[in-house]
């Protein structure tokens, strides 16, 4: 009895130690499938016009400081679970996987993600319209 109880305690302690590691080991693709695919779809085409495509439309965004800043401050990115490093890795994976234009872009860093998290948008739809109108 005592032995099985101790076994259960050890097993749950081992699980508690391993579980965060398992989360940390999620690949960017796994994160995308878990947290983003419901809206942005498997191939990043989204559900236009409500959910923008992560393919062509990125050309307006990754080429300018304002556009990159916008990408860091949309609700999906601000609320993405994971460390700033992991979310930066996710964003870079998205650009590499879906963006159809010139893929020569400056990768997002953890510092970029942290800076976005400090400044969530009040009205992302309006800000997006204004941003794209300027292009
Ligand atoms: C509930 C639906 C939803 C989910 C889930 C979601 N997004 Fe979005 N995403 C949107 C919408 C809608 C926009 C357009 C801007 C806005 O209105 O927020 C957007 C815009 C974006 C943009 C900017 C692209 C553009 O053209 O505006 C990026 C980058 C992005 N999302 C990344 C992500 C990532 C990464 C995740 C998962 C961690 C995610 N999103 C999860 C709905 C979603």
Automatic annotation (TrEMBL):
<dbReference type="InterPro" id="IPR036909">
    <property type="entry name" value="Cyt_c-like_dom_sf"/>
</dbReference>
<protein>
    <recommendedName>
        <fullName>Cytochrome c</fullName>
    </recommendedName>
</protein>
<dbReference type="GO" id="GO:0009055">
    <property type="term" value="F:electron transfer activity"/>
</dbReference>
<dbReference type="GO" id="GO:0020037">
    <property type="term" value="F:heme binding"/>
</dbReference>
